[in-house]
Amino acid sequence: MTTAVTAAEILRHTIAFLSDVISNRDLRHRLVSILLRDTTSAAISDESAVKLAGDTLESAITLSNVASRSCSLSLAEKLLLPLSEHHDHPLPFFLLSLVRTLHNRHLDAAVSLLRVFRSNPSLARSEIAPVLYDRLFSPQLLSVFRWLLDRRAQILSSSSDLEDAATHSLSKVSEEQASKLRELEKEYEEILDENCRVVAASFEEVLASENQNASITPPLLARKGSAEGSEAENNVEEDEEEQLVTEDTEITAFKSGHYDNPIWSEREEASIEFLSSGSCSNSSYAPFYPRRVSATILKPQNTSQNLPPLAHETESSMVDKTLTSSTSESEAETEIATASSTPKKTPNPVRTGNKSLSTTPKILEPQKSARCLKPTPYLINLADEAESSLDKNLPCSNSESEAESEEKDEKISLLEPQKFQTPKQKKNICSGSMCSPDCNMEDEHVPPEDFVCPLTSNLFDDPVTIETGHTFERHAIEEWLKRGNLTCPITRKKLRKTRIPKTNHVLKQIISSWKEQNLNSVAAMPCDSPHEDTDEPKLESSTSPNSVISEGTLEGMMSELRKAINKLYMSEVLEESEMAVLQIEKIWKELNLIVVDIHSMLSKPPIINGFMGVLLNSVDPKVLQAAVFLLTEMGCGDSSVIQTLSRVDTDVEWIMTLFKKGVKEAVVLMYLLKPSTVILSDAAIVEALIAVANMKEEEFLSMCLSPKTAAVLLLAQVIGSSEESIASSVAQAVLSERAIEAIVGSLGAEWAEERIAAVEILLKCMQEDGTCRNIIADKAQLSTFLESLLGATEGELFKIVKFLSELVKLNRRTLSEQILHIIKEEGPLSTMHTLLISLQIAHKFHFPVVAGFLLQLDLLEEQTKMSIYSEEAIDTLISCLRKIDYPAVQLEAAKIIASLQGRFNYAGKSLNREVLLERAGLDRSYNNFLQMDQISNFNEGIEASMKEENADEDWERRVASVLVSHDCGLLFEALADGLKSQNEELRSSCFISATWLIYMLTILPDTGIQGAARVFFLKQFIFILKSAEDTEDRILAMLALKSFLHFDDGLRDLTSYAKDILRALRELEGFSPMASEIMKVLVEEPESKADIWIHKEITKVDCSGNGEVLSIICFEDKIFSGHSDGTIKVWKVKESKLDLMQENKRHTKDVTSLAISESGDRLYSGSLDRTVKVWSIEMAAIHHVQEYDMKDHIHNLVVTNTMCCFTPHGSGIKVKSWNGESKLLNSNKHVKCLALVQGKLYCGCHDSSVQEIDLATGKVINIQSGSKKLLGKTNPIHALKLHGEFIYTTSSYVDGSVIKIWNICNNRISMFGSLQSSLEVRAMAVSSELIYLGCKGGAVEIWDTKKHSRINTLHTGSNCRVLCMAFNSNEDILVIGTSDGQIQAWGVK
User: Fold this and answer.
1) CA distances in angstroms from 115 to 136, 189, 418, 582, listed in the order given
2) Which of 173, 380, 1183, 1301 is 20 to 30 A away from residue 372, measured at CA?
3) Residue 701: what pLDDT?
4) Quick check: 1177 and 1145 in contact, CB under 8 A?
5) Coiled coil located at which positions (predicted)?
């Protein structure tokens, strides 16, 4: 016989099972492990896909973001579908059922779960889903169980009748019988497997039917047997209706596919005793399996307790409670007789052969009570086989005493776990109890037993599933654990973790849906809530064997409590109120030990105000501590207490004042009051919070929330919500108070919120002082901390990843990799897979950090080919680098790519730039950082150990190889675009990364991507080499260009740009020997490399109408010229010509000199009209702003911010401050030319002497002594220039001129060298490499500053004198002014 089932029944049971699996991580992992070890099914073709799907599923379960979860589930389903379609292994089906349950596709999930039974029924019913098998499959397989019993009876039968066989000892069977029994067991397993598949297939048909409420009867089940048992089989089919047990009687011994007592057991097999209210008859043979009779309903006694006795109660105490329901044996007998005679629907009798055993339930009436309590059900199970066996010679009559029968029933009831009533039991309870009419619900509205807590018998309000797979109401299991129990209430299995897991949201959602469909039932069915508001406390007598508080003592304590409460808020004497607070605290702690709820008595506003009155007036530390403790404990469980305190601002302020004064427990109350960040930012409060966080747990009272935890949470609030300056000050305070180790300890806290708060604090501390990361890395217990990834929100996940990515920036690569291995391997979930999923749904500003960290984890092992993790990470970094609309994202991505090189100093700063400079031959910066590390950590030497160096090089090679080979060098294009950015910081980071990767291409095997690097970077690096202002940038560009020499066609491309880069290489020869090496390669004759200079005339302008060009000066992109008619002109070089921007004529005579102020915003012009005029320099013009009368002709002019110096018509140098004061220096010399540098004035005189004058002291130092000639011609100094550490002077000489070079070093001046020209020099200009001498006849000689050799001569095109020359700031344009009024511009390469 089979039982009709509906789709709703199938869905209810499958959803309940899958919900438990999803909510219980340990159960889920155990089932997956069992399926992975399955060798009886077909092998899985792609284990990696299954593993990735499993990791994705685990990640999805922990995600709270709906979009993130949906994305993960879709990925997992996509991986599993091909495996489920082409393979019969149960694991893909099992994982697919979990995925579809999370997708709320319960019908598809049920089908997938049924496929597990079809693929491996034996494993499914015995280890995977035995409960589901019991509830769904067993009722359909009763004929199989009956067939087995018949076959066993036939085998065990001998010449004696079947009755003798029923009590035949299994230890006395013959060898032939034993052999047949073994064959029977094997045959039974095969039949059961095949029929499980048939039933599963029929269930799928039920689910596939359009009418979900229609019931479909599964097909008759197939059985096979030997010839010996064929007749019995036929009889079973024909008489099945009479011989099978009713639906109220469950067959339990064979539900897992095995019978309890194997034939090789030495102990004697016991038969089964059936409970009966009347006589019993001997059957023809006894069944060889235990049967569960219809439940005997025990109605609970009248107590004030809503919960049934918890599982840790002793058997005797529970029996005593049950027995108190009846005052005597006679009363019990009367009740039983009455119950038997009542015309109620009784269970169907158990039929065996032609006899039947009555299974009428025994009902105990409850004691009378004023309140109707919810009945607590108990299901009767069979006792131990040895106690319940029937001897065939034992008379079966009514002679057994009712007391013995009752005692046996009570003992039996204790053996069965508590469950919610079945619909029929529910009717019996309601009809036979004193409950309200609301209890009489219709069968279809009775909540499924999976929706009811086994401890409270109420609908779940906050269900949690513990590691054994059983689900309980949160406050009920918390209460169970608080009483000292360390086992599961149902299985008695010891719990490895006593921390309550998160809410089973899947089950809670299903219950909510059921409530909406059964509103009437929900109104009558109480739900558990941990925050019920009652007027009177619930006095729960202790059921613990260890309790020593009697009921009388309890009443006395409650009386004392009431008196203390009255004194607290009614007494006007402070001492009495203080004593009341201490007494209440004492009673609170004692009553809490026996779970007496006094909260409702204390949480009323008048009493709360009484506590606050004590806090405001008392000075006794113990009283203050007690009052704060009580308010905190009540506030933790009741938000109304916090609301009462929050109504008065002064109360909140006073609680914070108490905290600052040393009542450290007040920090928990502060946390509950949720003060604003502005208030918490007070320096005294921050200091107190740090002090509490730095204390040990043993120093605090035992409270609902640890003060240390509260302090950490509040500190994180200040750091996370304040301005940058306040957050920095708090982090510095944490560091200065040496509380960093205490905060690190919070990383291992049980509460995830505390761990996240610690992350926020430590991250800020590392940003303020990078050296603290070494302490964190040394002390942090990362294995525990990684549990924070479970259920973390998107924002929390980013904080965790940001913290970990900063933590691994250590100056020891081996330690960094150790930490990365822990993060990768020891988390509760696959950390890498969690990050991979995060990349798909995270905020765009979080992408670079997550991608960079994921790449580091993936590169811990050498890769033969790029993994999906590396591909996704690099694609994300490249994508971020191209987000020009989000410069912050671009910059973060560029910084992370640059830091992947893996070298950091002790403070966590990347040393990529310093390492590259060292490789280019400039190692000063890198050595400086190493010396700083040595000072910060004296245990580390300047030179890294060989082991660390090898680890650094190996990591650098792995990272660079993956980056450059990704998508044929796609990263190069993104970095090249970054080099063109207007953001200087972004350009710098891209420049460092590009230089590093190009250098690494010379080390890595050639994979054909060198050409891409040359295309993207060659011109840009040549430009940086030529034009960068920072010498280090130019050296790095030189390092990259040298790397190009190793590439195919690299030398050819560089040679074509040789003339562009040789000049820059000359300038860098003094900094790095690499410059000479490159020049030797580019130039065939090393001696001729200095001759390769290109001077090209850009333009020539005729200004003869304004007379001679007496002075020229260049500033930024402008050129200023002074003329002999008093005109000043402003020019700008555009392409191949000089554009005149402005012309001013404010001077009346020759403009002999021009000078730019130190600030760069003023132009000063000196003239023979005895005035100095001041001009403001604007973008496109100059404007006259001031004029000074100097009372003398001005020939040469130099200026500072406070004064000017010029040579007058007579002797000496006049110095005039802008406030009007003046003085005369060097009065005995006729000065010809001037130069001013850093407060030192250098002057060349008519008598060929050169002096240095200190303007501050007036001290004069002779650099070169002059000569007096009475009759001969003197040799005046016509020009004097300063460049770097050198002074250049030129004077007349016999048949030409002489140029002398002086070196200024450490305040000492010495002769460095001299040049001799055959021409008369009247003007001079000096660049970094060359000296230009302007001569009579319009010629300009060019000399090499190092070799002191003449290179070339420029011709202006006319026979005139070159009066002035000047370079622009880049030294690539030379401007010349002549006596015939011509201005020429020459390009220098």
Assistant:
1) 14, 19, 31, 64
2) 380
3) 81
4) no
5) none
Q: For residue 1104, give both structure tokens.
A: 């003869």
Residue type, position 772, single letter: C
| Whole-number Å distance between alpha carbons of 170 and 280 | 25
Helix (H) or strand (E) holding 517, with range, is helix 505-517
Pinpoint the alpha helices (H) of 120-211.
Answer: 121-123, 130-132, 142-156, 162-166, 175-208
Report which secondary-structure segment, H or E, holds 1241: strand 1240-1245
Closest CA to 1280 of 1225, 1312, 1235, 1237: 1235
* Cα distance between residue 1338 and residue 1377, in whole Å: 10
| Long-range contacts formed by 1004-1007: CB under 8 A, 24+ apart | 1004/957, 1004/960, 1004/961, 1004/964, 1007/964, 1007/965
Q: Among 95, 148, 143, which Cα is nearest to 119's?
A: 95
pLDDT at 848: 93
What DSSP designation does 373 have?
P
Hey, which residues does 1133 pair with through a beta bridge? 1138
Query: Where do the DSSP E strands lie in 202-329?
Result: 215-216, 250-251, 291-292
Q: Could you tell me the two tokens for 935?
A: 């000072």
CA distances from 615 to 109, 570, 1090 (A): 59, 16, 89
Q: Strands 1373-1378 and 471-473: what pairing?
A: unpaired
Which strands sit side by side in the sheet containing 1231-1237, from one edge to the other? 1231-1237, 1240-1245, 1250-1254, 1260-1264
Give me the half-sphere count of Cα atoms (radius 13 Å) on the Cβ side of residue 721.
Answer: 14
Q: Name the residue among 593, 453, 466 with its Cα closest to residue 525.
A: 453
Return phi, psi of residue 934, to 5°: -65, -40
Is residue 12 within 8 A of residue 450, CB to CB? The reply is yes
Report helix, strand or coil for 688: helix
Maximum separation of any 2 CA atoms in the chain, in Å: 163
Spatial distance between the Cα atoms of 450 and 428, rounded to a whole number of angstroms: 20
CA nearest neighbour of 654 among 626, 603, 614: 614
What is the three-class DSSP state of 741? helix
* Strand-by-strand arrangement of the 1137-1144 sheet: 1109-1115, 1118-1123, 1128-1134, 1137-1144
Q: What is the DSSP letter of 375?
A: P
AA letter at 307: L
As given in the structure block, the two tokens for residue 657 are: 């004042």
Give φ, ψ of 1337 to 5 degrees. Answer: 85, 5
Of 1333, 1165, 1171, 1152, whose CA–CA distance to 1232 is shortest? 1152
Please calculate the CA angle 823-829-833 and round it to the nearest 5 degrees: 80
- Helix or strand run (H / E) with residue 1134: strand 1128-1134
Q: What's the pLDDT score for residue 1136?
A: 72
Bridge partners of residue 1254, in order along the sequence: 1240
Q: How far from chain centre, in Å, is Cα 1100?
A: 66
Q: What is the mean pLDDT of each run of 10 residues along the chain (1389 residues)?
A: 75 89 86 80 73 83 76 83 76 89 88 88 87 85 82 68 42 71 83 88 84 56 45 41 36 37 33 32 32 31 36 35 34 35 35 32 32 31 33 36 42 34 36 37 62 85 86 87 82 78 77 73 48 42 42 75 83 86 86 63 84 88 90 85 82 86 88 87 88 85 86 90 85 85 87 89 90 88 82 86 91 89 82 84 88 90 81 91 90 92 88 89 56 44 68 90 87 90 91 92 83 85 87 89 79 76 79 82 52 76 92 91 94 82 92 91 93 90 91 91 90 89 88 89 90 87 76 77 89 77 82 85 89 90 84 85 90 90 87
Q: What is the 3-state secondary structure (H, E, C) of 1018-1066?
A: HHHHHHHHHHCCCHHHHHHHHHHHHHHCCCCCHHHHHHHCHHHHHHHHH
- Give 1374's strand partners: 1367, 1386
* Burial classification of residue 221, based on how many CB atoms lie within 10 Å of its CB (0-12 exposed, 13-18 middle, 19 or more buried): buried
